[in-house]
Amino acid sequence: MTVNKRFNAKKIPDMSNAFKVFAGFIAGAAVGVAAGYLLNSDKKEEWIESLKDYADEWKEKADEWKEKAKEKAKDWNDKAKRKKAHVNDAIEDAIAG
């Protein structure tokens, strides 16, 4: 008997919708409690400043990635234009024959 015949994936129970809702509720409650604790703590300003710094770092990274993507797109566009010109020249040469 092969492994595939012994193991039937359809027999593995799927999470019920009720469990998914319950798990989502618990996760949301945990995030809410953590946010409430942090915002009401003595270090609230420190946490907010830290989050702002973190967000600024990621914004800078995103801007760098955006610029790199623009450069790559321009390079690919220029390369495609050169290839197109080369193909057009080859076609014209073939037609002029």
Automatic annotation (TrEMBL):
Coiled-coil regions listed: 48-86
Keywords, in A-Z order: Coiled coil, Membrane, Transmembrane, Transmembrane helix
Pfam family, one: YtxH
Superkingdom classification of source: Bacteria
Residue stretches spanning the membrane: 21-39
Family matches, as InterPro entries: YtxH (IPR024623)
Protein name listed in UniProt: YtxH domain-containing protein
Protein source organism: Compostibacter hankyongensis
Organism lineage: Bacteria, Pseudomonadati, Bacteroidota, Chitinophagia, Chitinophagales
